[in-house]
Amino acid sequence: MAVNTAFDVDATVQKLVLSDHVKDKEAIAHEIQAQAKAKGIFLASIHDVYMARGKGKGKNFTVPAMNLRCLTYYLARAVFRVANRHKAGAFIFEIAKSEMGYTSQAPIEYAGVVLAAAIKEGHHGPVFIQADHSQIKASGYFENRGKEITALKDLIQDAVAAGFYNIDVDSSTTVKLERPTLTEQQRDNFESCAQLTTFIRKLQPKGITISVGGEIGEVGGKNSTVEELAAFMDGYHKSLLSGVTGLSKISVQTGTSHGGVVLPDGTIADVKVDFDALQKLSKHAKEKYGLGGAVQHGASTLPESAFNKFPEIGTIEIHLATNFQNMVLDSKKFPKDFKDRMDKWTFENCASERKAKDTDEQFLYKARKRALGPFKKDMMNLPENIKEAIALEVEKNFEFLFKKLNVTDTKDFVTAIVKPVDVTIGLRAVQAELTGEGDD
């Protein structure tokens, strides 16, 4: 595609986000990608970076994987500004299966918006976008395994076509703790993960090894152990076809939950991560199985004092989402009348999600994310000065995280490993229905 010298990145993003037709979004995303390519910006896999870290290369750092649910263009710009200031190269933009649905952000739109943000802020080099929680729904799986796996394959195809070269396979929902042995408890998990890994390898563009993550413990459930990690990985390798490249990382459960635990007044309960267990799991994943390390989910609502510990103990990646959403919606700069309309919509349309003992504050905290899709266009049409002011507030949090997670001065390490591959993003023939539960 010829590069448009009169390209207006802000206007193009506005058109992309407000368009109702996915084929129009594809055409706009193509235009953005052409502009990005001309400026040395390309979508990439972080697989080889993680493999290098697993071998002890480079300094200790923990990659922030950031789910941007709203004002995505403005928050992504804030991330790139922080990265530019601190010469950071190891960071991921991600969106979960469920988030794609309730935020109305199809993969092709998300990829286009993030690339546009990179252009706007003068980024150069790789951009990592991840399909977070490509998750099996347990009830559907045990009722009809083939149908559930096929549905997840549809979603993965959409993501890879759009340039998501990092895929987190979450089949941990199929773990059966009541079974007599650890291998049997993890069997459906490792067999499904191996099957989906093989599928992903067939999809990946020539010259790109997609980073695939597995998961051994459902977030919010029982804490993971080294023995469970071994049972999963040993079973996974036996199930994986010969010659197929395996995982780059493994997600574990060490005490967190998605979005945090909400107290009756709407505040978040203190959470204690089992850092000793996380360190042992990450060490075992690297030394025994050659992975980049262990991944911590549900981390955005942890106390600030916790974040510097993740690189110290060898955590390869942490997932962050809810706090960014909270900072936007709870900002004093966010128009009160707009927020009141979103709250009213949530109470009227999400009542079925309310638990009997939920206070209004608890219910609203957990359910208000459902309003992000219905109000996406209205939010995008807020005055520029409001959107930019809110993004500047969140930018302070991005900067804090980049420093604490030690991803400053990682640009040279990353770009020495990750090289551009010429691939055109787009849509596949059939769009998957976007449903699911897992996000951070």
Defining traits:
10% strand; disordered C terminus; alpha/beta; 440 residues; TIM Barrel; 8-stranded parallel β-barrel
Explain how this protein is built.
The chain has 440 residues and is of the alpha/beta class. The protein is 48% helix and 10% strand. It has helices at 9-18, 22-38, 47-54, 72-86, 97-102, 107-120, 138-143, 145-161, 182-203, 226-239, 275-289, 309-312, 322-329, 336-349, 360-367, 376-380, 384-404, 411-417, and strands at residues 41-44, 63-67, 92-96, 125-135, 166-170, 211-215, 249-252, 294-296, 317-320. Strands 2-3-4-5-6-7-8-9 form an eight-stranded parallel barrel, surrounded by six helices. It is globular, with a radius of gyration of 20 Å. The two termini are 37 Å apart. The relative contact order is 0.18.
Element layout with pairings:
Blueprint: H1 9-18, H2 22-38, E1 41-44, H3 47-54, E2 63-67, H4 72-86, E3 92-96, H5 97-102, H6 107-120, E4 125-135, H7 138-143, H8 145-161, E5 166-170, H9 182-203, E6 211-215, H10 226-239, E7 249-252, H11 275-289, E8 294-296, H12 309-312, E9 317-320, H13 322-329, H14 336-349, H15 360-367, H16 376-380, H17 384-404, H18 411-417
Parallel strand pairs: 1-4, 2-3, 2-9, 3-4, 4-5, 5-6, 6-7, 7-8, 8-9
